[in-house]
Amino acid sequence: MHNDPIIQAKQTRSQQTQDKLLQALSDCLKEQFFEHISVAQITERAGVSVGTFYRRFKNKEALLPFLYQNFGIKLDKWVQKMERNTKDSLNEQVAYLVEKMTKFLQENAGIFRTLHLNARLYPEILPTSKLNERSAEYNRISAILMLHPDEINHQCAKTACDMAIFVLISNLIEKILYRELTPALASPISINDNTEQITLMMQSYLTANNLGKK
Amino acid sequence: MHNDPIIQAKQTRSQQTQDKLLQALSDCLKEQFFEHISVAQITERAGVSVGTFYRRFKNKEALLPFLYQNFGIKLDKWVQKMERNTKDSLNEQVAYLVEKMTKFLQENAGIFRTLHLNARLYPEILPTSKLNERSAEYNRISAILMLHPDEINHQCAKTACDMAIFVLISNLIEKILYRELTPALASPISINDNTEQITLMMQSYLTANNLGKK
Amino acid sequence: MHNDPIIQAKQTRSQQTQDKLLQALSDCLKEQFFEHISVAQITERAGVSVGTFYRRFKNKEALLPFLYQNFGIKLDKWVQKMERNTKDSLNEQVAYLVEKMTKFLQENAGIFRTLHLNARLYPEILPTSKLNERSAEYNRISAILMLHPDEINHQCAKTACDMAIFVLISNLIEKILYRELTPALASPISINDNTEQITLMMQSYLTANNLGKK
Amino acid sequence: MHNDPIIQAKQTRSQQTQDKLLQALSDCLKEQFFEHISVAQITERAGVSVGTFYRRFKNKEALLPFLYQNFGIKLDKWVQKMERNTKDSLNEQVAYLVEKMTKFLQENAGIFRTLHLNARLYPEILPTSKLNERSAEYNRISAILMLHPDEINHQCAKTACDMAIFVLISNLIEKILYRELTPALASPISINDNTEQITLMMQSYLTANNLGKK
DNA sequence: GATGAATGAGTCTTCATTCAT
DNA sequence: TATGAATGAAGACTCATTCAT
């Protein structure tokens, strides 16, 4: 006769449906692109009726913010993990970051691809605030490199770290998320080589070695 | 009453229709994404009937290879120009390449974006052979850097050049084509800084300076 | 622990719910047509759940008879008022009736329009018995004119009075309820002129002047 | 090998479809109200596909103007007929008009009901210009009565004729189009009596007999 | 009883593709 | 051969009604 289980159950029912729908969308996204997924498909996969879908969400697009939000949590956790596992030297830190980020992208390729492409197809439906939050996380990753300021040989260490992170991410997006397409495909570098070389490139860039320029 | 002129005329007419349709598609692509363009729209813009469209092309997707082909010609010309304008030192060569490629992408952002996204949305409709041709062009760009072998301080100069080019392209795709989106947006590097820094990074990477690593 | 108060309370509560729903429907009808009002809208406005609605009423249409009934009470009161305020001469009586009826329609245009249109859109859901009751009220209005039998110059005074009332009502429906639509709109008669002229017409018709007929 | 038949055929095909759809709507309207008719119903009845419907008309509502237009032509013809068949005396003229108009409404009750109700349900979709045209036709009918100015005993003959016509139309709308509903139902006047009495009323009103008032 | 979540039939609408002319 | 009318499958969305809690 306790209230809690009942309330819990009530909350859960509603929430369960929403979760089922989000999960169904995630599943569908592994096979096809958002645009090609119909509401009927999602609801069928979720085991609910279309009406139920429209009771929760205004339309298919309304699901995306939740996807972004869920992803944000995942991303935050990952960054936290990186922040807890710092390395003693810059070079080690860079190597570790490249390795872990590669793995992170590989393991979440489906969701990453979706969000990456959606952002490009529907820039308007992304709430600006969310984007800013990503910016915060990029900063935090950059800050991890900044833990080794004396090893960074650069006019502006901050800029260098930001740039290194940005280059790394751009590189991994193409190499990991779209490895079977141009430009990744056109480039004869294997994934393993890519990991090694991008590490090397970041290290070269960040450390003293830029004396050569002028 | 000679056959030739008539056939000629027919071929020409046929060709004209095809060109008109391709042009119409290109025009439409400036305003909306391929997916959202209907056959009716294309034919209306081209001034031909839908029936005529289906006489020439199996479906809308069948237009894309032609678009890729046209782009291939453009790309080839650009690479040729790069091949003709080589620099004396590796560092100069890198700086020149970064500058020109940035400009090339900026000037053709529309078509680049379309092809880049289409490739990601419809990987299946890209004929493999076309991709290989791209691969050839990537190779040629890489080869330009290889003109300075003694300046490249690397186990495998070829790998290093390929990698440098691939990183450059990935970087420019995000920074130039999607500058208002994550990750470009989340990164605080300006476009000018990006040009400068990516040059620096490639130079650091390619030249001797990797002594620091170990 | 007496039953009465509880039952009373229950009945009251039940009745309250019903009243709330009827009131909600009335409110909605001021803004949109019955057809376009959803059960969800009504219940939301009434502050009850849809389930509760369906416990009370078979469906949305089942609300209408209650609306008609409420209106019947209003109408009855108005007729009673007319019956209490009779005039000495037929002409005066007609003028008074026209004036008051015009005002009555103007003041209740919303509900009149609704019932008038609903009756036309859903003739089947009007319980016949209710209609007969209207018939009774029409008769009572007609009877008011019949209070001046000697002034009515007609083969059948009853027929003449019934006819006069019917013509008056038809005229006011179009002129008052739908004054911005055809036929009212197409007719260049102003509302004031209409009041005056319909009075005149009824008087002409009812009084001696039908000598012309044969 | 004449062009005409072919062109004719082409024009006809397109036109035929449109006519079929309009006819189908008309047929459906005999059984149910516009609002309750689905596009699928109309196209099925017309023997064409839904796609064909949407090629001609933006949506269901887009059919209405055509219905109005067709009706306008019919109405115009009827008015012309009335204009050609004038009577020698006002009384005869009134009687003739009442008789013919009653018949006209009876024969076109379906379409009249539809237009009358639609105007009330969707006042916004009626192009104002069309309404004005009706106004012209009302004027023409009124003008027929005005052919007997010396028989009309009224301050303003024009006003009297307009009023008479408006009252007649209002009366017939309720009595003919909605004879089984309030107020027509509530009034004990038969249709035959109504014809006779409305004639009488108009005659009384228009002719000298208004001396009695004061 | 009351609640409101879930259902699913029904409607509108689009658009790729076919086919009569 | 070119045209554009016709087709119909497919998808989005609504809402009256039911039913588990």
Automatic annotation (TrEMBL), chains A, B, C, D:
InterPro entries noted in UniProt: Homeodomain-like_sf, HTH-type_Tx_Regulator, HTH_TetR
DNA-binding region as annotated in the record: 38-57
Molecular function GO labels: DNA binding
PROSITE patterns: HTH_TETR_2 (PS50977)
Signal peptide: none
Organism: Thalassotalea algicola
Top-level taxonomic group: Bacteria
Protein name: TetR/AcrR family transcriptional regulator
Entry keywords, A to Z: DNA-binding
Domain HTH tetR-type: 15-75
A Pfam family this chain is assigned to: TetR_N
